[in-house]
C-alpha cells in the first residue's frame, strides 16, 4: 500500500530501525487519519477523527485468522477476543491447581519415606545393641 518493500516495515517493527522521512510521508499520504505526532513521538491519540472500522475488527468479535499477502510471501496472524483469553487462563489455572495438589502428595510421600527410613535405622540400632555387635 505504501509502495515500499515489506522488509522496510519489518525492520522498523522488529529491529527498531529508525523510520525515514519518506516512509513517514507515505504513511501520512495514504493514511490520512493517522496522527503523525503519535506515530513519531508516541504522544496523543493514534488517529485523527474517526477510528477506521477495519482496525476495530481485530479487537472485537470471534477468533479469526488474517493472511496478508505481499511480494515476500504471506504473513498470518491470529486475533483472539477477551473470552478466548479468559478461557485459556482458566484452563491454565486448573492445570496449576492439579500440579500443586500433586506436589503436596509427593511431599507427603517423601515425608513418609523419611519416617520409614528413621524407623529402620532405629530397628538396626536396637538389633546391633541386642547382639553386642558394632555392625
Describe this structure in words.
This protein has 135 residues and is mainly alpha-helical. It has two domains: 6-79, no CATH class; 81-135. 59% of the residues lie in helices and 10% in strands. The protein contains five helices and two strands, in the order ααααββα. The chain has a two-stranded antiparallel sheet. The chain is rod-shaped. The termini are far apart.
How do the helices and strands line up, and which of them pair or pack?
Layout: H1 6-15, H2 21-30, H3 36-41, H4 53-56, E1 64-70, E2 73-79, H5 82-130
Antiparallel strand pairs: 1-2
Task: Note the main attributes of this structure.
mainly alpha; rod-shaped; 2 domains; 135 residues
Q: What Rg do the Cα atoms give?
A: 32 Å
Strand content: 5-15%
* Morphology call: rod-shaped
Count of individual helical segments: 5
Q: What's the rounded overall pLDDT mean?
A: 77
- Biggest sheet overview: 2 strands, antiparallel
Strand order of the largest sheet: 1-2
Count structural domains. 2
Structural class: mainly alpha
Please count the beta strands (DSSP E, at least 2 residues each): 2
What is the terminal separation in angstroms?
Answer: 87 Å
Q: Uncertain runs with pLDDT below 50, 5 residues or more?
A: 53-72
Helix content: 55-70%
Order of helices and strands: HHHHEEH
Amino acid at each position: 500500500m505504501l509502495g515500499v518493500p515489506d522488509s522496510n516495515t519489518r525492520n522498523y517493527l522488529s529491529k527498531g530501525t529508525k523510520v525515514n522521512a519518506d516512509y513517514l510521508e507515505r504513511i501520512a499520504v495514504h493514511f490520512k487519519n493517522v496522527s503523525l505526532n503519535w506515530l513519531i513521538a508516541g504522544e496523543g491519540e493514534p488517529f485523527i477523527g474517526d477510528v477506521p472500522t477495519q482496525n476495530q475488527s481485530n479487537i472485537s468479535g470471534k477468533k479469526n485468522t488474517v493472511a496478508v499477502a505481499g511480494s515476500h510471501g504471506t504473513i498470518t496472524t491470529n486475533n483472539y477476543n477477551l473470552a478466548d483469553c479468559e478461557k485459556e487462563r482458566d484452563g491454565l489455572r486448573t492445570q496449576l491447581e492439579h500440579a500443586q495438589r500433586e506436589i503436596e502428595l509427593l511431599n507427603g510421600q517423601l515425608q513418609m519415606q523419611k519416617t520409614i527410613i528413621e524407623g529402620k535405622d532405629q530397628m538396626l540400632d536396637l538389633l546391633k545393641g541386642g547382639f553386642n555387635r558394632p555392625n
